[in-house]
Each structure stands twice: as C-alpha cells, then as structure tokens.
Amino acid sequence: MSSEPPLLELENVEVHFEDKPGLLDFGGETKTVRAVDGVNLTLEERDVLSLVGESGCGKTTLGKTAIGLQRPTGGSVKFRGHDIWEVRDGKSDADITWKDIRTSLQIIHQDPGASLNPNRRILSILSEPLNQVNAELSRSEKRERIYALLERVGMNPAADFAERYPHQLSGGEKQRVALSRALLMNPDVILADEAISALDVSLRVEMMDLMHELQNEFNTSFVFISHDLSNARYFTAHAGGKIGVMYLGELAEIGPAEDMIGDPRHPYTNVLRWATPDLSLRETGDPPMRKIDIPDPVNPPSGCRFHTRCPEAREVCQEETPPDYQAGEQRVACFREDEDHSYWNSPELSDGNLADTGTNTDVGEESGFSD
Ligand SMILES: Nc1ncnc2c1ncn2[C@@H]1O[C@H](COP(=O)(O)OP(=O)(O)OP(=O)(O)O)[C@@H](O)[C@H]1O
User: Fold this and answer.
1) How many Cβ atoms are within 10 Å of 69's Cβ, its own excluded?
2) What are the φ/ψ torsions at residue 274 (nearest 5 degrees)?
3) Which superkingdom heads the taxonomic lineage of this protein's source (predicted)?
4) Residue 39: strand pairing partners
5) How far apart, in whole angstroms, are the C-alpha atoms of residue 167 and residue 118?
6) How confident is the model at residue 361 (pLDDT cuts 50, 70, 90)?
7) CA triple 213-40-263, angle to 5 deg
8) Of 126, 156, 171, 321, which residue is most buried, by most CB within 10 angstroms?
9) Which of ligand 1's atoms lies nearest the C-alpha of 227?
10) Cα three-residue angle 366-367-371, rounded to 5 degrees
C-alpha cells in the first residue's frame, strides 16, 4: 500500500460566515451562516469528485475551501500532506510554498466571460500562466505551446482564435479558453464550478468529454460542482470518481457514481435522484420528502439536518446527529445504516411534532423540486 498522502485531504472542515445586517436593516443582528460543517473528504491523483445538492447547500464554499480560496473556520485542508493554511501563514516548515499550492489548485467558473479580461486578446490572456510557471520559455515557444493547446481544445485555426478578444468568442469557446488557462498552470486539481451549466445541452457532453481527455493528458484531478445529478453522474462515472451529496452544509452521502444512482442509501440522495428527470428513474407522484422548503442555514435543524423533510425521519433523528456509516463503498450519514440503532424503535416523526427551524423558501428552479 502506498504511504503517499492524498492529493487533498479535508478533515472536519467547517466554514461559517458572519453575515452582518445590511445598511437598511436597522436593529438587525449579525447572523452566522453555517455554509459547511464537519466535512471529511479525500481526493487522489487523477481523481474526480462531484459535489451535488440544492442551491445554497455549500457546494461552492466547500469547493473553494478544498482548493485554498476560502479559509475554513474549523478543521484542516491538506495538500499532499501539508496543511495549506499553515503554509500560507508561514507556520509550516514544509518545503512547499503558498505559491506552489496556489498554482497547483485552479478554478474555472460558470461564467468564463467574467474571468477573462475583456481588453486583452486570447494570446495575451493565455501567456499569463506561462509567464508564471514557464518564465524560461521564449516568446515564440510560449506562442507555440498556446497554439497547440488551443488546437487541442478544438479552437482551429489557433492563430485566428489567439488574436480575438473574449467578446468575439461563443460561451463554449470562452469556457475552452478558461480551461486552457487553468491547464497551462500545470495544476494538480481543477475546481470546475458549474463550468458546463451555462452551455447549451448539446455542448455539455462535448465539454465533459474534453475535460476527461485532458485530465488524462495533464494528470489532473477535478472537483466538479453541479446542481444536475445526471451531469455529475456522466462526468464522475467516466472517470471512476465519487459523487458527494451535500445537504445544508454537510455531506449526506458520498460514493461511486453508479452506486449512488443505482442504490442511493441516504433519503436525500433518493430525493435528488427523483428530481433528475434525465436519469429516467423518475417515478410519478409526489417527491419522496415531507416538504419542499429548505431550512435556513443560519438556524439548521437539530440532529440530522434533513429530518424536517425526510420521509423516514423518527424522533431520534431530531435529537441525535448521525455519524458516517460505511455501506459498501458509500459513506452515509443516516441511522438507517445501523440495524442495531435505537432509530428502529423510535416513534415516527409526525409533521405535528417537528420543531420550527425557520425556512428559506427561496428554492430556485434549479433545485429541481419546483416542477
Ligand atoms: N461570503 C459569504 N458571506 C455570507 N454568506 C455566504 C457567503 N458565501 C456563501 N454564503 C452562504 O453560504 C451558503 C452556501 O453558499 P454556497 O454558494 O457555497 O452554496 P452553493 O451550494 O454553491 O449554491 P449555488 O448552487 O446556488 O451556487 C448559502 O447560504 C450562502 O448564502
């Protein structure tokens, strides 16, 4: 067995935001938004981890925390065994610098247009990473490398695209430039945050296939964020990675893509599967949950955070927080995985005895539950 530490290791990660009252919110109080709580994860070399869940469940916050763009308020994030915030704060004697870590962990966003400088040509935009990591290359060598990559991502003729400004590119082409820019840093991990969501459906599969091919060529791992379970399945299953289902800041379940779709263990994974028509598994009738409204992350429900919506919830679920159970290759935070747990003798939870935890009724269309 290899003794190498994982590429990324998150232990008990917590990210809480202090949400100060707005200028017009006289007398309002600072609230603590519990965006991420108690998350444990690892990412290996050439791995894929997809994060799925409803809007606001903490996917972006967790993704950014995993790649060192967001400081956790608790727990640790390690890159190749080094605590990245200790390195950042100069408290580590590791022979790796913060700059090395930042270079190794890249991001591409949903809206690539916003991250590409509108006043610079593509050649200039793509020269930037090479100036940072391959400063020894001559100008013509850099240009050759950029042209080769543009061709590789399907932007032919490269010399023509290289001279364009971002506004002269389609959404799909901009996303290819953003991907190329990340790859030129020679990263170990790319966080693709809803990177295909804004593309036409026909282009999404093409972009995911391209990312798979480049993953092999560049030896890169992906953290892939999507609110769409069928896209997450496609991207993850092809790469033999894992899907992590987030609910109100916590990981409800994580496991290999096909196991998660074929045999979801957590009642919330089952809801996501039900809400994803593309999976062709949707049964008719009501969603398999008590209510649609997402509780407020400022005041999440006690015990299991999903208990207020869970059709399987019993009284113990509002009193105790489930630990992680291993079910085959899946890790599941639900008492139902323990056949000896007091859950099985606990009275069923009726809607009448649910504590009021406050709700965030702003359930976006993209949650999939509104249709
Ligand atoms: N800088 C911040 N300050 C205060 N609250 C924040 C901040 N960033 C995120 N949040 C809150 O943290 C929670 C998680 O947000 P996050 O963007 O990580 O969720 P998400 O699952 O990525 O959502 P979406 O799918 O809509 O992008 C939300 O309640 C959000 O409002």
Assistant:
1) 14
2) -60, -35
3) Archaea
4) 13
5) 7
6) very low
7) 65
8) 126
9) 25
10) 80
Is the CB of 19 inside a 6 Å radius of any atom of ligand 1? Answer: yes
- pTM for this entry: 0.91
pLDDT for 215-233, tens place per residue? Answer: 989 999 999 999 899 999 9
Ligand 1 atom 6 nearest Cα = 17
Omega prior to 288 cis, within 30 of 0:
no
- DSSP state for residue 348 in the 8-state scheme: B
93 alpha carbon to ligand 1 midpoint, in Å? 33
Q: For ligand 1, is residue 187 a contact (CB within 6 Å)?
A: no
The strand order across the sheet containing 8-19 reads 31-43, 8-19, 74-79, 82-83
Q: Is the CB of 110 under 6 A from ligand 1?
A: no
Instruction: Kindly give the distance from the C-alpha atom of residue 367 to the centroid of ligand 1, in angstroms, as a whole number.
Output: 14
By the 8 A CB rule, do 240 and 222 touch? no
66 in contact with ligand 1, CB cutoff 6 A: no
Q: How far apart are CA 307 and CA 317, in angstroms?
A: 6
**Average pLDDT estimate for 40-46:** 95
Tokens (6 digits) for 281: 């598994």
Note the helical H segments in the chain.
59-66, 84-88, 98-104, 112-115, 122-133, 139-152, 158-162, 171-184, 201-218, 229-239, 257-262, 267-274, 315-319
Query: What domains can be seen in the chain, in order of their start residue?
Result: 8-18+32-119+165-345 (3.40.50.300)
Q: Are 154 and 70 in contact (CB under 8 A)?
A: no
- Alpha carbon 163 to its chain centroid, in Å, reads 33
Specify the residue for token string 């599941």.
332
Residue 286's alpha-carbon distances to 43, 49, 109, 271, 348, in angstroms, are: 36, 30, 34, 10, 20
pLDDT in tens, 76-121: 999 999 999 999 999 888 889 999 999 999 999 888 878 899 999 9
Query: What gap in Å lies between CA 59 and CA 73, rounded to an integer?
Result: 16
pLDDT tens per residue, range 49-83: 999 999 999 999 999 999 999 999 999 999 999 99
CA–centroid distance, 57 to ligand 1, in Å, is 7
